[in-house]
Automatic annotation (TrEMBL), chain A:
<comment type="similarity">
    <text>Belongs to the binding-protein-dependent transport system permease family. LivHM subfamily.</text>
</comment>
<feature type="transmembrane region" description="Helical">
    <location>
        <begin position="6"/>
        <end position="29"/>
    </location>
</feature>
<feature type="transmembrane region" description="Helical">
    <location>
        <begin position="193"/>
        <end position="218"/>
    </location>
</feature>
<dbReference type="InterPro" id="IPR001851">
    <property type="entry name" value="ABC_transp_permease"/>
</dbReference>
<feature type="transmembrane region" description="Helical">
    <location>
        <begin position="36"/>
        <end position="56"/>
    </location>
</feature>
<protein>
    <submittedName>
        <fullName>Inner-membrane translocator</fullName>
    </submittedName>
</protein>
<feature type="transmembrane region" description="Helical">
    <location>
        <begin position="230"/>
        <end position="255"/>
    </location>
</feature>
<dbReference type="GO" id="GO:0005886">
    <property type="term" value="C:plasma membrane"/>
</dbReference>
<feature type="transmembrane region" description="Helical">
    <location>
        <begin position="62"/>
        <end position="87"/>
    </location>
</feature>
Automatic annotation (TrEMBL), chain B:
<dbReference type="Pfam" id="PF12697">
    <property type="entry name" value="Abhydrolase_6"/>
</dbReference>
<keyword id="KW-1003">Cell membrane</keyword>
<feature type="transmembrane region" description="Helical">
    <location>
        <begin position="287"/>
        <end position="312"/>
    </location>
</feature>
<keyword id="KW-1133">Transmembrane helix</keyword>
<dbReference type="Pfam" id="PF02653">
    <property type="entry name" value="BPD_transp_2"/>
</dbReference>
<feature type="transmembrane region" description="Helical">
    <location>
        <begin position="86"/>
        <end position="108"/>
    </location>
</feature>
<dbReference type="InterPro" id="IPR043428">
    <property type="entry name" value="LivM-like"/>
</dbReference>
<keyword id="KW-0472">Membrane</keyword>
<feature type="transmembrane region" description="Helical">
    <location>
        <begin position="165"/>
        <end position="183"/>
    </location>
</feature>
Length: 295, 624
């Protein structure tokens, strides 16, 4: 392996890691606050990308990528809240909400995916890149767009971290995640927070979708593979801390890049899932986790 | 207290036989291959969903690799039947073994996990299986799967000929077999261990159950059943597709399981038919079909959290209420002469706070004696007393709400010991029978004590088959012998066999004399049983006990010496002040001494009432 190949693998891993971090953080946000796993997250990614395409693409409205991204993120925030009220809230006090929410979010994913299919059709589409051209780094040439994706993801995650640590709303969200009853007694409107957490998670998914759409092709089921990867990442990193899934995302991204090089495209998911199972058995709370959960 | 009658005695027998007969006739009645194909799919999915229910519903283990194990069964069939070229029957058997073995492997990492973590690991495990399958493309055909798998053949009969009727019957047979296996398991020691491990894990462990063994057993067995179904599916569809590892089939089967109602076995089978048929109705709508089906699923889960099975129970209850009410109306109109001949008393309808009540009254201005019948019976149970005591007393009895020829009533409001005591008050008031003697049998005994304990003027109180309680439910366990028929007293739906059992153990085997009482059990509104006994906890038992201890009213207990429901020692330990000091049991009276030994019973009752007359006159003097 030459140094150049190594750098190529590393950079590929970092790009993947940045995308996974965005998706996994959204997923973890819902998991920690609501205690459920949202199987519609992958479809949120696709829907966000398609809404952005509808606004931005010259084949459709042609309002530019920035407008598309803005409207898509805001729109997905609203759709996420709507999905929470329709699919999760009715089962809130249900003893088997964990398994019921699996089927309702799966059903929600089916509905959204078919809606995407009906509205935009099954053909591949692509968003325009954030930045054009290539740049050279560490002796290899990479596209400026991919670098922009990594930078943007990191900025957004940092902003989210600050929001959760400092902003009153973010602190309330962490409080609910740690102890719902106590938070409620302190006057926090838990239901509204749940809806906001869901909306925020959907907005993060939309952003991830837009970034994916700018470096790869989009199709209605583009979210299912990232969803599985995000699942690995969340389990890998644990949900005890906000940063856990982010570290794990980069580890998984790099691992995947290395695996693809070493064992080939087919076997790398197998190895990843197998590693995940081993991690879960040895340390169910995740690599960076403690027993207490928090955002 | 355990009650698990054989399936032949349960009320499920007849509907199941009818449905099976209809399904068995389908290929003869309809030549539609398409209908048969849909039904075969429903049978297969029924097996997969109901076997999943064993681990998910009963065991509370969210094994989301179940559907992947079904697909493993399909591939195992392909491996044996096609790649190795062995008999396809062997392939189906191996499919079950393979799925069971893989399930045991998957169980190992989830032994220490619970809840959502099991979901995640098992989904990951099915992804691993998927990746392994598609990576071995020279054997499994990779992403395009295995095609033209061998069809089944038996004694030269080829299953894929003749409109695939053979597959239809084989699938039906497999569904029946798998259901029998699941039914037996859920009612066995292991089945109870599975549920115990779900509901009270640490208690179950402390009672010596092994969590490892239970989990391993649950997951392996349910996967093996699903794997056999997968093997069959492979021979029927003749392809093994890796797509079946995906979330699509998983969602479909999970929707069947939850739509049907988890933890019921029958519900998922029902939902397998429902989902297969309904989704076929929308087949012409293309992408809209998935949207409609998903919306339907969400709506049903929101409004019917218990699923189709719970919906079926609601329908059944409505039907049963209508049936019992219609029976009461019919008998009120046509059986009057017969009933009046039994009691020799005049029957009238009386409006009370809890509905219209049928009352039998011998009339006259003799001292009134009110007889209150027990659970799922009727006033005619006292026919002997009516005839023997009418010269001395004005004998009155009435059918409780929801019993005999009285109307059914609102279960929330009208079916409770307190409401029944209200009815007794209203009946006595309507007949202007003041200051009565009251005798109550079994549940009627509690009504009698309740009536007296609320300071309603009663001259004397006698009960039979009624242990006075101090605290419920603790004393119920002490006062009653937990025979299996005791459970029937609070069961909403009784099968024909069960109502025969109940009538036989409360009154006696079906003879010309007791046939009326056997019919009365069938007529009783099942909600009256369930609600009245369910609400026993909110009766003011301490007040009843205080009242009995105060000995303000002469009190007698006239039990049968061999009452199958009672713990006789409990009565002795109560040390209540009563007529003869010790409980005065009637030899061989069983649960209904007044019915089975009327002569001795009447003698004792009259002796008590006479003694009470003197004391109560004495008591009245004191008050004066």
């Amino acid at each position: 392996m030459t140094l150049e190949t190594l750098n190529l693998i590393l950079l590929g891993g970092i790009v993947l890691g940045a995308l996974y971090a965005l998706m996994a953080t959204g997923l973890a946000l819902v998991w920690t606050t609501l205690g459920i796993f949202n199987f519609a997250h992958g479809t949120f990614i696709a829907l966000g990308a398609y809404i952005a395409w509808q606004i931005a693409s010259t084949e459709a409205s042609g309002a530019g990528l920035l407008a598309g991204a803005g409207i898509s993120i805001i729109g997905m925030f609203v759709i996420g809240m709507f999905v929470y009220y329709l699919l999760i809230k009715p089962f809130e006090r249900n003893p088997d909400i964990v398994v019921k929410s699996v089927i309702t979010t799966l059903a929600g994913a089916t509905i959204l995916e078919n809606v995407i299919n009906l509205v935009w059709g099954p053909r591949n589409k692509q968003l325009s890149p954030l930045l054009g051209g290539d740049m050279s780094l560490l002796g290899i040439t990479i596209s400026r767009n991919e670098m922009a994706v990594v930078a943007l993801a990191l900025v957004i995650l940092a902003a989210l971290g600050v929001f959760l640590q400092r902003a009153p709303l973010g602190r309330a969200m962490r409080a609910v995640a740690q102890n719902r009853e106590a938070a409620q007694l302190m006057g926090i409107d838990v239901e509204r927070l749940y809806a906001i957490a869901f909306g925020l998670s959907a907005a993060l998914a939309a952003l991830a979708g837009i970034l994916i759409g700018s470096i790869r092709f989009m199709n209605p089921s583009m979210g299912s593979d990232p969803l599985m990867k995000a699942l690995i990442v969340v389990i890998f990193g644990g949900i005890a801390r906000f940063t856990g899934p982010i570290y794990a995302a980069f580890i998984v991204g790099l691992l995947e890049a290395v695996m693809t090089y070493l064992v080939g495209l087919y076997w790398s998911p197998t190895v990843l899932f197998a590693i995940m199972i081993v991690v879960l058995v040895a340390k169910p709370e995740g690599l960076f986790g403690r027993y207490r959960k928090s955002v | 207290m355990r009650y698990s009658p054989s399936f032949a005695r349960s009320s499920g027998l007849i509907p199941v036989l009818v449905v099976l007969a209809v399904l068995a006739l389908v290929p003869l009645l309809s030549s539609s291959m398409y209908l048969r194909h849909l039904l075969v799919l429903a049978f297969v999915f029924g097996i997969v969903a109901s076997s999943w229910d064993l681990s998910l519903g009963y065991g509370g283990l969210f094994n989301f690799a179940h559907v992947a194990l079904f697909t493993i069964g399909t591939y195992a069939f392909g491996l044996v039947g096609q790649t190795l070229g062995l008999s396809p029957w062997l392939g189906i058997a191996f499919a079950g073994v393979a799925a069971g073995l893989v399930a045991a492997l998957i169980t190992l990492p989830i032994l220490r996990l619970s809840g959502i973590y099991i979901i995640l690991v098992t989904i990951a495990a099915s992804q691993v299986l998927y990746q392994i399958i598609i990576s071995q493309s020279d054997i499994t055909g990779g992403t395009s799967g295995m095609v033209s798998l061998p069809a089944l053949e038996l004694f030269g009969y080829r299953f894929n000929r003749g409109g695939k009727v053979g597959y239809y019957y084989l699938a039906l047979l497999m569904l029946v077999a798998s259901t029998i296996i699941l039914y037996k398991i859920t009612r066995s020691r292991f089945g109870r261990a599975i549920v115990a491990m779900r509901d009270h894990k640490y208690y179950a462990i402390s009672r010596g159950m092994s969590e490892t063994r239970t989990r391993l057993f649950t997951l392996t067995v349910s996967a093996a059943l699903s794997g056999v179904a997968g093997g069959f599916y492979g021979s029927y569809m003749r392809v093994a597709s890796p797509d079946n590892f995906g979330l699509g089939l998983l969602g479909l089967l999970l929707s069947m399981l939850l739509l049907g109602g988890a933890g019921t076995i029958w519900g998922p089978i029902l939902a397998a038919f429902f989902v297969t048929m309904v989704s076929e109705v929308f087949a012409a709508y293309g992408a809209w079909r998935n949207i409609i089906m998903s919306l339907l699923l969400i709506v049903i889960l929101i409004f019917y959290p218990g699923g189709l099975w719970a919906l079926l129970q609601t329908l059944r209850e409505a039907l049963d209420v209508a049936r019992s009410q219609a029976t009461a109306r019919l008998r009120r109109r046509f059986g009057l002469g017969q009933r009046e001949a039994m009691t020799g008393a005049h029957e009238t309808m009386v409006a009370t706070r809890h509905g219209r009540i049928a009352v039998a009254d011998t009339g006259g201005d003799k001292p009134a004696l009110l007889l209150i019948h027990g659970n799922s019976s009727a006033k005619e149970v006292f026919a002997n007393q009516f005839k023997a005591l009418r010269d001395r007393y004005r004998v009155i009895s009435f059918d409780l709400p929801g019993h005999g020829v009285s109307d059914n009533a609102d279960p929330e409001k009208d079916y409770s010991v307190e409401a029944f005591a209200d009815v007794a008050e209203d009946v006595l008031k309507a007949l202007s029978a003041a200051n009565p003697f009251v005798f109550g049998w079994s549940l009627g005994g509690y009504i009698a004590i309740e009536l007296a304990a609320r300071d309603y003027p009663v001259r004397a109180l006698a009960v039979s088959g009624t242990p006075p309680l101090r605290v419920v439910p603790e004393d119920v366990g002490r006062a009653y012998d937990a025979t299996s028929h005791f459970v029937l007293a609070s069961k909403t739906f009784l099968s024909p066999a069960e109502s025969r059992d109940f009538a036989a153990s409360t009154t006696g085997p079906k003879t010309a004399e007791t046939i009326h009482l056997h019919r009365a059990v069938r007529r009783t509104d099942g909600r009256a049983r369930a609600y009245t006994l369910g609400k026993l906890q909110i009766v003011d038992w301490p007040r009843q006990m205080r009242f009995l201890r105060s000995a303000a009213v002469p009190f007698a207990i006239l039990n049968g010496s061999n009452d199958p429901f009672l713990n006789h020692q409990y009565f002795r330990d109560l040390k209540l002040e009563q007529w003869t000091g010790e409980p005065d049991d009637i030899q061989d009276g069983k649960h209904a001494p007044f019915l089975l030994k009327p002569a001795i019973f009447n003698e004792k009752l009259v002796a008590f009432l006479r003694a009470a007359e003197t004391t109560s006159r004495h008591g009245a003097d004191v008050v004066a």
